[in-house]
Fold this sequence. Notes:
The structure holds 2 protein chains of 2 kinds. By secondary structure, chain A is α+β, with helices and mostly antiparallel strands. Chain A has helices at residues 12-22, 35-40, 77-82, 84-89, 91-97, 103-106, 111-116, 125-130, 148-151, 236-247, 260-284, and strands spanning 5-7, 26-29, 48-51, 62-65, 68-72, 134-139, 142-147, 152-154, 157-158, 165-172, 178-185, 196-203, 208-213, 220-224. In chain A, a hairpin with a 2-residue loop joins β6 (134-139) and β7 (142-147). Chain B folds into 3 domains: 33-126, Aldehyde oxidase/xanthine dehydrogenase, a/b hammerhead (Aldehyde Oxidoreductase, domain 3, Alpha-Beta Complex), CATH 3.90.1170.50; 282-441 and 591-754, 2-Layer Sandwich (Aldehyde Oxidoreductase, domain 4); 442-584, 2-Layer Sandwich (Aldehyde Oxidoreductase, domain 4), CATH 3.30.365. Chain B has 17 helices and 31 strands. In chain B, the strands form 8 sheets. In chain B, strands 3-7-1-14-11-12-13 form a 7-stranded mixed sheet. Chain B has a 6-stranded mixed sheet with strand order 9-18-17-16-10-31. In chain B, α9 (360-378) packs parallel to α16 (712-724), α12 (471-483) runs parallel beside α13 and α15 (634-653) crosses α16 (712-724). The chains are: A alpha+beta, B alpha+beta. The interface between A and B is medium-sized, with 22 and 26 residues.
Amino acid sequence: MKPFLYQRPGSLAQTFDLLSEYGSSARILAGGTDLIVGLRQQSVDASVLVDIKGIGEFLPEVAFADGHFVIGATTDISRVCENEKFRATFPALVEAMETVGSVQIRNRATLVGNVCNASPAADTVPPLAIYGAMVNVGGRDGTRQVPVQEFIRGPRQTALRPGEFVLSVQLPVPNAPLGVAFARLTRRRGVDLATVNLSCSIDSVGTVRFAFGAVGPRLVLGIERSGVLADSGAPAGDRDAALANLIAATSPRTDIRGTQDYRSAMLLVLSRRILAEAAGRLDSGQP
Amino acid sequence: MTASQIGSSTRRFGGYERVTGSQEFVADLRLDGMLFVKLVSIDCARARIVSVDTSAARGLAGVVAVVTSDDLPQPVPRFGPVYKDRPILAVGETKYHGEPVAAVVAESKEVAEVAASLVAIQFEELPAVFTVASALNPLSPLVQEPELRSAGTLASTNVLSEQVFGWGDLGATEADLVIENDYCFPMVTHFAIEPHGCMVVSSSGGFEVWSPVQHPYLLQAILADLFDLPLTRVRVVAPDPGGAFGGKQNPKFEPLLCFLARMTNRPVRLILTLEESFQATRRTSAEIHIRSGFSRDGLLCFQDIESNFLLGAYADIAGRVVSKSNYLGCGPYRTPVAKIRARALLSHTTPSCAFRGFGTPQVAWALESQMDAAARHLGIDGLQIRLMNLAAKGEDVVPGDVPADGEWAQSVQKAASAVGWGEPLEPNHGRGIAVGIKSGATTGLSYSTIRLLFDGSVTIYAGTSDMGQGARTIFAQIVSDELGVPIEQIDVVMGDTSVVPFDLQTSASRSTVFMGNAILDACRDIQLQVRELAAELHGTALENVRIVAGGVFISEVKVSIPEVVQASLGRLRGELIGNGTMRRTDIANHPLGGRPAFFEFNCTAFEVGVDVETGEVSVIKHVSVGDTGKSLNPLQVEMQDEGAAIMGLGHTMMEHVILDESGRIANLGALDYRIPTSKDLPLSLSTYSIENADGPGPYGSKGVSEGAILCTAPAFASAVTEATGVVIRNLPLTPERVWRAIRDGASDSSTVEQV
């Protein structure tokens, strides 16, 4: 690991000062589970680490207000998963969060960090997008909101502008019945990066939304309104055709974790499975 | 008197320290004034080194030295356990991805790392050999310069060695069914949790070396030879390794560290990263072509095997891996006629060495898969075809050599019943069963010294390395029973060549048998001394004094050993010292230099469930049964079996080192080189021992540490075949491979001649 400067600002204002002083050589440190590994492997270059865990305005909590859950930038994934109301409201996201790393990693890693790391294979991102998550970006001149799927612009690329960092992500509590499911495919069951991951939702009027991860430079979203996917009695061929139509927007590649044709085939298999699961959740009244 | 320890699950010596993190591994030790070493390598396998610019690194504050092969004695010394082929640092060209070109020595680890990144190496990629086909191609570049090789026709090829084993006349042998296939076993890495590393102090004309090495005395001998020192001037301290699995048998960077310690006149330390450990050593990969002949009834008629094992750039001990495993290439069966041609091939890849199973998992993958292919073609059950061909105790497996030394069918029957062989299966479930034998050590020499102190407590001195197998506990159990000493009054001292007597190796599951017998012999030495003292004390003849279960009987009077010792030695106190030896010497003209001291026999069985849409395999039941002779500590045997079984699941389901077109390891590190986690374990894993007290070790024991990895892959693959109908002959059976085979309908593609 190369030497770096460590800063621990006590307030948001100090943080923005540091970010403008050091520019792109500064990196935000919260959980550090991606950042420190990157520094060790010299795949990340940073001359300054700005540790945001000392910021007085931040509460490492899961807050609820005005029909939204707000997850702060220093809130670790385990803490989010412990929140009973959150679990009941966003079960598919909790399932995705519980596949991130291992217990020890989730005790350090933050949900915001998983988004900011901007990995195409990030497991939380498909369900975050399906649940309509917004990223709250802070800067000297105030805050702005960006939908999660627009925030991640490509591998390791985010919509952050110089001097900005992410304060929180927020999730609206669904205001109509919704069934959501998540799945991923990995090479082994414990602690692995996804070969593909995906999430889908189905609502009571038959609209189906899909989000596919690890099969393109950024998240691929699809929506199907014809009702064929909501109709479990529709011919399997028609349903598969509708799914294939959604999957056609993905561009999986061959890499060390899987080939292009395996990824494509698994998207269809897992899409069928999570669609059935989401429909079951809708029927049972679970979000 | 104490309760018998042998056969009970005595608590592990050092277990508490190991699980609470208080055990000190080499990386936990600190020496005053020590310097930190970082190796510098290039991002290429084989390359000509054009230039090395160390000026920027040297200029960094805290850097003490930056060393390349130019700074070493010329010609650069080479070393190795069999061939002196490995240079201290790369000379002129690199031979594999990660071979160090330079070494940085600095005041801190961090400075060493930064300085290493500042060493500018210009290189030119050269044509290279990464595969069996390329190694066999006479037009390929040579991995080793012919002048480094021993004279002979092979010196100008990439064949390190080629041996043919066999018996009977293959040309004159007929069979009703001949099955012919090719099998591949991948490169895998040991993945010991403790990375490789060492520390060296240069002092009084010699060296003190700290290394988690399996063979401290071999390291001592190699260093003494390299530096022309008497053995007394090389002290090797070997703290218990944090896992080794064969990967820590032989020196790697200890010679380099000795040079650096001399140059800087300071203690030096090198602890590899996980990635560097991957690049330091691996298991020998293999491609095996095999023709197997069977009678209509399923009896073996012949095996015709051509094994090509791909070694790395330096031979290490891998030539022996090839010969020893292929010598038993026909497995635990009665094979009327056999021909086995085994080649050890050099390549521009990570040097391969010993790895749990020592080549047998590679050979068994091919052989056992053939048994299943034959069974399918003949409509015989996989269990039956094995039972009908298995050598009974006393029958030859290699004619003229040691015959079958166990009731192996008992293990097979046990595994079959434990896995529920023949019971109805759910859809997409299947069962498989396989067997394997590995030769135990063929030669060896272990000495032990035991001190029975005045109060009756005992110190055992043994040169074994306790790397997790629990050797200390076994040795203490033997002494406890033989000398009647409570287990908590026994100390076991290991891992220091200035303290413990010579032991050849900790390898080949030998220590219970070899060092165990040496310790038993040392106990006998002490028992004789006690009997002599007791006879003198009681004014009786020696033959009237017996020692039974650690107690002394003078005619019918019973006393304890300490009572005899204390009464005899008296006011000046003192102690008794016993010495013991187990020696097994070379046999002239034997292809392996000696006969197996014992066989490790294992039967493994699986029930799996396959997700036929994704290719994911769930292990429902995993059963391993070993022929242990006598399980001296049943819990430790179970732990060894479970460890080996799970390690076997690794190379069966997910592990393989992937090379890119430049020979670089594409999955270098834990992120993309996958080993089983706790979540990948079988839903049920059971291990059993067959104990007939028919081994050469103490109380009829045999070695046990490798059995459960020998035939994991073929048993698993057979179960997948029953579940899905597809046959896969390349390991590992990753979900994608299984999925692809199902998609392509890859049913048994054996070349079959049916007469």
